[in-house]
Write a structure and sequence with these properties.
Helix content is 32%, strand content 29%. With 374 residues, the chain is an alpha+beta fold. The chain has 3 domains: 149 residues, no CATH class; 70 residues, no CATH class; 78 residues, General secretion pathway protein M, EpsM (Gyrase A, domain 2), CATH 3.30.1360. It has a 5-stranded mixed beta sheet with strand order 3-2-1-4-8, with helices on both faces. Helix 8 crosses helix 9. The longest helix has 23 residues. It is globular and about 70 Å long. It is a single-pass membrane protein. Belongs to the GSP L family. It comes from Pseudoteredinibacter isoporae. This is Type II secretion system protein L.
Length: 374
C-alpha cells in the first residue's frame, strides 16, 4: 500500500460509525470522515464478520478447487454456503496433501460495504480482515491485537480466532500481548496502517465475483453498452417466443433432477433411484424401527434431559444426519464455549460419543456445532 492511502475500519458495533484514517508520510492520521477529494480507500473488517478455516485437501483437487471449494466448506460453516462469499489461499503442500486457509463472509455484508462507498464515488481497492493482518508468530507463540470489535489472536499456522475462544484451546497457556496492550483507536489503526504498508500475507476479499476491474474512461463504452443492451433485448425476446411452448415441461424436468440430487445427498447408499417416493418412505419406516443407533426423537430427548440435569440453556437451530458417516450434526445456541464442553461431558456419561466443531460468538452467547457419532 502506498502512502496517502485512506483506511476505513468497518465497525460492526451497534450504533457505531466506521473509523477513518489516512496514512501519509509513514504516519497514521485519524479522520472524522472521508473527505470529498478521496477517490479510493482500503477497507478493514473486524474478524467477527468472517469465518476462517484451515482445510487439508488432495493436491489433485487444487485444479478444480475454485468450483468445489464452497461445497468442501458446507459441513464446516453454520450459514448456507450459497449465501456467503469465499476466498482461500494455499498455505503448504505436504506430499499428496495441501493445506488451504479459507475466509468466508456474508455476501450481504460485502454488498453493503461496497454499496456504501459506491454511493460516495469512492473506489475500494482491497478488503482485508483485521486479524488476518496480524503478523504471523513463531511456533509456540500467539500474537494479540485488541480492536473495538474484540481482542483477536493470530496463531503460528496462520489462522486467527477471538481470544475468548482461544482461552479454551491448547493455546491458553501461550497468550502473549506482543503487539498492543490496550484498546485504543489510534494505536490499533496505526498498527494496521503499518502492516498494510509492508508485504503481508493477508487475503484480499475482493476476489471472484467481487474482483475490482479497471475503470479507465472510454468514449466508446456508452455506445457499446447501448448496442449490447439492444442485442440482448432482442435475444431474450426471441428465446421467450421459442421457449414458451415447453417451458413448463422443462421446469418439471429441472424439479425432478433437483429432487434426485437431494435424495442422493440424504441417502448416498442407494445406487439406483427408481421411485423417489417409495424409496424415501422405506428409509423412513426403517429409521422408525428400534435398533442400536440413536434416532432423531431419541437424540432430542437425550439433549433435553442432559440440559435439564446440567442446568444448561440451549436452543436447537438445526439437526442433520449423514447416513454415509453415521454422524448427526447439531447446531445450537449456548451461553458459552464452556457450556458446550459441559454438554459433551454429560453426553459421554450417557455413552454417547461427540465432538465439538465450529464455534462462533453471537450476541450474549455462542453458536456451536456438535457432531454426534451414532
Amino acid at each position: 500500500m502506498n502512502d496517502n492511502q485512506y483506511i476505513v475500519y468497518w465497525n460492526l458495533s451497534e450504533g457505531e460509525e466506521p473509523l477513518y484514517a489516512l496514512r501519509r508520510d509513514g504516519q497514521c492520521v485519524l479522520l472524522d470522515s472521508l473527505p470529498e477529494s478521496a477517490i479510493s480507500c482500503v477497507v478493514v473488517l473486524p474478524s467477527v464478520a468472517v469465518s476462517n478455516q484451515l482445510l487439508t485437501v488432495s493436491v489433485k483437487q487444487l485444479k478444480s478447487m475454485h468450483r468445489a471449494f464452497p461445497y468442501i466448506l458446507e459441513d464446516e460453516l453454520l450459514e448456507s454456503v450459497d449465501l456467503m462469499h469465499h476466498v482461500y489461499a494455499l498455505k503448504a503442500k505436504q506430499g499428496e496433501e495441501a493445506v488451504l486457509q479459507s475466509i468466508s463472509i456474508s455476501a450481504e455484508l460485502m454488498e453493503s460495504v461496497l454499496g456504501f462507498f459506491q454511493r460516495q464515488n469512492v473506489r475500494v481497492n482491497a478488503i482485508y480482515v483485521d486479524a488476518d493482518l496480524i503478523e504471523c508468530p513463531e511456533e509456540g507463540q500467539v500474537n494479540i491485537l485488541p480492536t473495538p470489535g474484540g481482542v483477536n489472536a493470530r496463531l503460528p499456522d496462520g489462522s486467527f480466532v477471538a481470544v475468548e475462544l482461544l482461552e479454551t484451546s491448547e493455546w491458553s497457556g501461550l497468550l502473549r500481548r506482543d503487539i498492543l496492550s490496550s484498546i485504543n483507536d489510534d494505536s490499533f489503526l496505526s498498527y494496521l496502517s503499518d502492516r498494510l504498508a509492508l508485504e503481508h500475507d493477508a487475503q484480499n476479499l475482493l476476489q471472484g465475483d467481487y474482483a475490482q476491474k479497471d475503470s479507465g474512461k472510454n468514449w466508446k463504452a456508452p455506445l457499446k453498452a447501448g448496442s449490447a443492451l439492444f442485442v440482448l433485448a432482442f435475444v431474450v425476446q426471441f428465446i421467450y417466443w421459442q421457449a414458451s411452448a415447453y417451458v413448463f415441461g422443462e421446469r418439471a424436468g429441472a424439479q425432478l433432477e433437483n429432487a434426485r440430487n437431494e435424495y442422493r445427498r440424504i441417502f448416498p447408499g442407494d445406487a439406483r433411484i427408481i421411485d423417489i417416493r417409495k424409496q424415501a418412505s422405506g428409509h423412513l419406516k426403517r429409521a422408525a424401527q428400534p435398533g442400536g443407533n440413536i434416532v432423531l426423537l431419541d437424540l432430542v430427548s437425550v439433549l433435553s434431559e442432559v440440559s435439564e440435569d446440567e442446568g444448561l440453556t440451549l436452543v436447537l437451530q438445526s439437526i442433520r444426519y449423514d447416513q454415509a458417516s453415521g454422524e448427526t450434526t447439531v447446531v445450537m445456541h449456548l451461553d458459552s464455549v464452556s457450556r458446550a464442553e459441559k454438554l459433551m461431558q454429560a453426553l459421554t456419561g450417557k455413552g454417547i460419543s461427540s465432538s465439538l466443531g465450529q464455534v462462533r460468538k453471537e450476541g450474549d452467547g455462542v453458536i456451536a456445532r456438535l457432531r454426534i457419532k451414532s
